[in-house]
Amino acid sequence: MPDVQKENLKVKRSSAGLGLYTLVPIPKGSFIIEYVGEHISHDESDRRGGKYLFTLSDKIVIDGKARTNTARYINHSCRPNCEAESDEEALKIRILAKRTIKAGEELTIDYGKEYWNDHIKPYGCRCAVCTTQTL
User: Fold this and answer.
1) For the chain, what is the domain count?
2) pTM value?
3) DSSP states along 30-92
4) What CATH number does residue 78 fall under?
């Protein structure tokens, strides 16, 4: 399956602020983008805090706060079209298409229970699934 080229991804407004969108269809299982940033310990992660911390392993967290980390714009969804794959040997987190994604669609992942409880639940979920259910 062909990888998605970075020029086929665009950051623009979404229901949750800024989001990452695809300009081309993406087949199920395709590699989309890598979540990049500084590799830090869990203790350092707890000290820094923030919304762009992604656990790679029991020893390493990726701090993806830099704007050069385009994957940081992938928002949470209760029914995501992408999934994260941790490669502890290569020290990488790869984002893959969980299903076929149409051109123009926002890329989303499930941020997990801890992030949900700390950052989303107190304010309400703004993913497309939840916002259309409240209409």
Assistant:
1) 1
2) 0.88
3) -EEEEE--EEE-HHHHHHH--S-EEE-SSS-EEE--STT-GGGGPEE-SS-SEEEEEETTTTE
4) 2.170.270.10
pLDDT digit string (tens) for 74-100?
999 989 999 999 998 999 999 999 999
b/e code 16-41 from CB counts within 10 Å (16+ = b): beebbbbeeebeeebebbbbbbeebe
Tell me which residue of 29, 23, 31 sits closest to 106, measured CA to CA: 23
Boundaries of domain holding 59: 6-133
Q: Does some domain include residue 1?
A: no
In degrees rounded to 5, what are phi and psi of residue 74? -75, 120
Of the two residues 4 and 36, the one the predictor is more confident about is 36
49's CB contacts (< 8 A; 6+ apart) are none
Q: Which of 67, 95, 68 is nearest to 82 (CA)?
A: 95
Contacts of residue 32, Cβ cutoff 8 Å, sequence gap at least 6 = 3, 4, 9, 22, 26, 82, 95, 96, 97, 107
Is the Cβ–Cβ distance between 57 and 84 less than 8 Å? no
